[in-house]
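--- STAGE predict ---
source: upstream dedup step, 1 unique chain passed
mode: sequence only
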Amino acid sequence: MKRRTLLRAAALAAAAPLAAPFVARAQGAGHVVVVGGGVGGATAAKYLKLFDPALKVTLIERQPVYVRPYGSSEVLTGHVTMADLEVRYDTLASRYGVEVLIDTVVGVDAARRTVHTAGKRSLAYDRLIVSPGIELMYDAIPGYSEAVARTAMPSGWIPGEQTALLARQLQAMRAGGTFVLVAPPNPYRCPPGPYERAALVTEWLQKHNPTAKVIIVDPKDSFVTDQTMMLGWNRLYGFDLPDDYVQKMAGKVEIQRHGRPGMLSWVRAKDGGRVLKVDARRMRVETEGDVIAADVVNIVPPMRAGALARQLGLADASGWCPVERRTFASTQLPHVHVIGDASIADAMPKSGFSANTQAKATARAIVEELAGRPAPEPVWENTCYALAGKDYGLFVADVFRIVDGKIARVNGEARYLPLDASPTQIRLGARYQQAWLRTFTQDVFA
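--- STAGE serialize ---
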């Protein structure tokens, strides 16, 4: 915990220029339009006004209510409801003076710096920030589609009706049934998320369906927080770590060897975990190593930048949005910045925390540039909290700077909850996760 405290202190010190007081300029400071009211867009709109109250800021978002994805897996276990995930934009408007426009952007005239909406509005801007989020590539898996996701094999990675459907399927699963989670390839939103979801489902099944089993099939051979997460699985669910992980962790922590298979298993790529196709009618998942009959199938498909990014010409052939690293200015369109999951941010993960810190740095850069001053050298940070169980918390925490033109992690190896963490530290990690959900939401929207 001492290493964690030092890391947090270093991050705060490095990020201090972003929070420094700013003297508002006179009227006519400029107009910044922000498209997308998720974490990145809402943070950018709020902090633009904090950094320069004279700046006109308009936030355009399609939906009047934001449903937060972070923490949404807890809907499956009944810890929270779908209503608990809902956030509104009232405070951004009433407290900070952000003009919130519920509408859909249909085009951008980059030459004239104008945004056009489905509601027949045209908004001129000095700078445009686009935070389009992700799009799930349902059709990338043979046999899968958005229609299948809505009716039989939900994803729920973008929270909404599919999340509620998955919760109902889990709770109605037959005694001794099989829950299969199909993990996504890199890159994807929320690196520890699929493995946290599998853990929370297993914990719930321990109480309500103790003869059931959970199988993760994975196109990867590792994941962020894998050692600390699997150690939690080992202690809580009878999971036996793969031999190569046991060797890597030997001497650092005691790992239990169980006499029989536990409730939770992880089939990685090298063991045949890559999915070849799914059959929604028969509830089958075919991998390179097996054909698995399931009662509930939760698929987290490959991802790319949200459809709006491609519609506006902000994405490249990779499906993601290339940006200039210091300011997240698009390399595709002038006077446009792309933040959050859709951007190509090198070592930074696609997470809500990353989107939040990118938004703050970008807001500061825009305010300074509109005032004719150079943008400060950016520093970003990220922390992903995760749960291996309700009271078993873990995390990964990083600080980022530009190194040789790319965004690079600059903190040392003390990124994770230590493998030899005490039971008290592990419980504190779970409390930190719950506290973060509240305070992070307040930082973005309140």
